[in-house]
Specification:
It is built from five helices and five strands. With 206 residues, the chain is α/β, with parallel strands linked by helices. A hairpin with a 2-residue loop joins strand 4 and strand 5.
Length: 206
């Protein structure tokens, strides 16, 4: 997900499948230090959580449409985050916007703000995407699995902050089994009513 060439190669491999019912785009990243992606020059969280994820979504749509069973829409579920409800999106008026994330002098480095911003960009993209995708062809939605023990999302969070995260997960986080059930709900149980929607705690939410 850090390389456009790799994303495109993955999509080409998917085209060779005899059948594709469901795609769940789960790759995500939280960085605790400012890092530019060496392949694209974009800030790493924005690159992985937004740019590459949405590119892959676009590239998979034709395959999901053509290789799902006849009369049954393909399913594309993108993993989001409930942290978008707290996003401040302080650089919202920057023009151009994307390059503002790549320079900490323009957008001061704050991983607690940037992670939800990268996920919020994905929701804004979804709103536009479903203007061009019919639910009869591919149902597209975004799901928040919640705070989960055992996930590697915080793999680069170390030191005191890492200890706090680990402790809080022990006290409050869902098991991986419960978290993954939100994926099954969004990708299998929810129907066309979820097209273009954000699913949180197994329910369609604003």
């Amino acid at each position: 997900m850090g390389s456009y060439d790799s994303v495109q190669a993955f999509a080409r491999r998917a085209e060779q499948l005899s059948r594709l019912d469901i795609a769940i785009l789960n790759a995500g990243l939280i960085k605790m230090e400012f890092t530019l992606n060496p392949n694209t020059g974009h800030e790493e969280m924005v690159q992985v959580n937004y740019l590459s994820t949405m590119l892959l979504a676009i590239l998979l749509l034709p395959t999901l449409k053509s290789k799902s069973p006849h009369g049954v829409p393909g399913r594309l579920t993108i993993v989001g985050s409930g942290t978008v409800h707290a996003v401040k999106f302080k650089n919202r008026n920057r023009n151009p916007l994307l390059s503002a994330f790549d320079d900490p002098k323009i957008t001061p480095w704050d991983p607690i703000e940037l992670y939800p911003s990268s996920k919020f960009l994905g929701l804004l993209f979804l709103i536009k995407l479903v203007d061009h995708v019919k639910a009869d062809d591919v149902v597209v939605n975004v799901v928040d699995p919640g705070y989960c023990k055992g996930s590697l999302l915080h793999r680069e969070t170390t030191g005191v902050v890492g200890g706090i995260v680990s402790f809080s997960k022990t006290l409050t986080a869902r098991s991986l089994e419960v978290g993954s059930s939100t994926y099954v709900d969004a990708a299998v149980l929810k129907g066309k009513e979820s097209h273009g929607c954000f699913i949180l705690d197994w329910q369609i939410r604003p």
